[in-house]
Amino acid sequence: MRKDELFPEIEEKVEEAVKKGELSRRDALKVLAFASGAAMMGNTELFAEGNETNDSDKNATPKLKAGMDAKIVIVGGGSAGITVAARLVRADVKPENITLIEPSDKHIYQPGQTLVAGGIKTLDQLIRNEADYIPAGVKWEKDKAVEFMPETNSLKLASGKTLTYDYLVVAAGLQYNFEKIKGLTADMIGKGDIHSIYDPKGAVAMWDAMQKLKGGTLLFTNPATPIKCGGAPQKIMYLTEDYMRNYSNTRKDAKIEFMTAGGKYFGVPAYHDAVVGFVKEKEILTSFNHNLVEVKPAEKIAVFEKKTKVKVFDKDLGEEIEEEKIELVEKKYDLLHIVPPMSPVAEIVKSPFVNNKGWMFVDEQTLQSKKFPNVFGIGDLIGTPFGKTGGSVRKQAPVLVQNMIALMNGKEMEGKYSGYTVCPLITRRGRVMLAEFGYDKAQVDAKEPITKAMAMPSFPLDPAQERWLWWIFKVYLLPPMYWYGMLRGRA
Ligand SMILES: Cc1cc2nc3c(=O)[nH]c(=O)nc-3n(C[C@H](O)[C@H](O)[C@H](O)COP(=O)(O)OP(=O)(O)OC[C@H]3O[C@@H](n4cnc5c(N)ncnc54)[C@H](O)[C@@H]3O)c2cc1C
Prior knowledge:
By secondary structure, the chain is an alpha/beta fold.
């Protein structure tokens, strides 16, 4: 579909939804505002100041005059680092007081990797020059931070150079630990029958493989660690299933199985229940509590640790107790899609900023380090219970900037991150369930450790329904919103 054909069709669908009472006039206007931005793409910047009442405005960066002579260093120029830099500049921090450390000269729109693997976008469409997104005047150290010395407010770069700061933002993201799976190395991805959309070139290889599939056993794994975009392991499976069923007519000869280390599809019961329906309809099998631990590519065997609870009689207690039993299960495959175990990047894991599991230790709401008050963490590497998405970053960045500026001015930090995250779960080509969720409010109010998620829909529509409207959102509207809204500190 060409861009100029897109807008009238969206308008029609939105009008239809309003007539059916599925969408209020106000929300319809929001959708159309996104749509018109996407349709007019080019150099148009979305959400120009003063013409938007998007709910992100609730957290909008205050225009506090903050003395602003503090030196700020941002580690990582991915989604979070760039968004924070842009918002700091918009909040009147002098760009020359900000240094951004980022080793890569390319910026990739990672949520698009799923679409590349589904043959919907090309890899080229996701990649832009990092330099074009670093706000004018901000200093760019094209390097890696390798050592942190918070007691002297300083850090070392790989080049040996030392930088000092008054405030530090840690936004260095995650690394993929493919080698934690026995028999696997990162360079095996996309070769033979082993695939992963988490690697950008792997996403291209997955699309090639999908088109060649004739049937067989297809295994899609999900690891035991937190991961970026918890829905992506399912999205690629549904896109593959859809391709075989509706395009290549090979579905009848295939067995598709979701092999997940988790015990549910989603933490929010309504989303979990919706997925139970999708997988049933698609005749996909699921093995919960199965964690991929080894691959044997020559034999096309994947080995999983299967965890079960068993009742055993404890002689000392004289009663039955529950014990965890772990056994190894071997499965033959014709295609194996792997989501690797993930952790913050090595430089952060060994830094003084982390909790005992190696994740950046921050207050779940203010995003301030629990150890060093002039340090903040944002994005995938923070040790919050869920929410490793670009959607989370979009809600975290204004909170972080608001709090940092308050601190710089000796004021109370009032910004609070709600735990919001969004997973546009592609269920097939043309359909997406927009799973939005965040911290459980009851736990937040009771100041309990947050362990549960609750649904946080932005629109008054049943969020557990797959819809064409959210497909349009995911495929056509979110990318321009990312490049022109979020990374510019506007949305
Ligand atoms: C396949 C896939 C699908 C996804 N789908 C979605 C989706 O549908 N919706 C959604 O909202 N999100 C999705 N995401 C997640 C989203 O892309 C991430 O949550 C987001 O990019 C996190 O931003 P970040 O800045 O924390 O990390 P990143 O964007 O990864 O940036 C981290 C940056 O830090 C740099 N860095 C690393 N080490 C150092 C160092 N030592 N010093 C300096 N810099 C360093 C890296 O080069 C990188 O540029 C998806 C991701 C993937 C991979």
